[in-house]
Design a protein that fits this description.
Length: 254
């Protein structure tokens, strides 16, 4: 499925990610949202959260600001965050932990408060639902790699082996997103823009029949998603041992 078909970030998952291990959310938590892919998460925040929108490019920062205009914009690399130590209660990374360099975890840990945590999340499609499995079979008949389901969640294993984080906990939230017949056909057509017209017509007819046999008219089909969320508590004992050798860059105090 394309990224455009993904749903809004659910409040239940957001609240769990923001809640520190001791269960007491600060009155005005300081959150660093890293990466443009965190835009859905940032867009679900309320005005009480003090947000820094950070990406490696100006375009990425603008994407975040479009979802939370009161955020402080910063262009930086995850491995070289230009903030003073202990600046944030939460660092949020959505859909992109797998894309961060290995040394990013040390940089993230450095800018967290001693009671802070890293919040990692991925929204992934749940292919266990029968009609979704049948759709996958139709698409893989055209492209064996279609709906392969490689989301990057395996990168969370890095947290378990990192000296900078402890007590990694996970929670999953189910999410159902309505999709109409027209939107499903459009999504399939966009997946195969170069497919010859005859073959595309056959595929679209098969997908249309699948929709009609699976939906309970007039209700739309429901695309099943799962919000996989992790929290990892910062280990400042490990962080302190590296601060003397760290490049302080241009410290930004919040």
């Amino acid at each position: 499925m394309s990224a455009s078909s993904q749903p809004a970030f659910p409040q239940t998952a957001l609240q769990w990610l923001l809640t520190p291990p001791d269960g007491a959310i600060p009155a005005a938590p300081r959150l660093l949202a890293f990466g443009r892919s965190a835009a859905p998460l940032v867009g679900a925040l309320d005005e009480s959260v003090r947000v820094v929108a950070c990406d490696t490019s100006r375009a990425g920062v603008r994407t975040l600001l479009n979802r939370f205009r009161r955020a402080l914009p910063v262009v930086a690399q995850a491995a070289h965050l230009p903030f003073a130590p202990k600046s944030f209660d939460v660092v949020a990374v959505h859909q992109s932990l797998h894309a961060l360099p290995e040394d990013s975890l040390a940089s993230i840990a450095r800018v967290l408060t001693p009671t802070g945590h890293l919040a990692v999340s991925y929204i992934v499609r749940d292919d266990s639902v029968p009609w979704v499995r049948r759709l996958g079979a139709l698409l893989r008949d055209v492209d064996p790699e279609a709906m392969a389901g490689a989301y990057g969640t395996e990168s969370v294993e890095r947290l378990s082996h990192s000296p900078f984080f402890t007590d990694v906990v996970e929670r999953r939230h189910r999410l159902w997103v309505p999709i109409s017949r027209v939107n499903l056909l459009d999504m399939v057509a966009r997946r195969f823009p170069d497919l010859e017209s005859d073959r595309l017509g056959q595929l679209m007819a098969s997908v249309g029949n699948l929709y009609e046999s699976s939906a309970r008219v007039p209700e739309p089909l429901l695309l099943p998603y799962q919000v996989s969320s992790w929290k990892a508590v910062v280990n400042h004992a490990a962080v302190s041992s590296t601060l003397a050798d760290a490049d302080p860059g241009l410290p930004i105090r919040l």
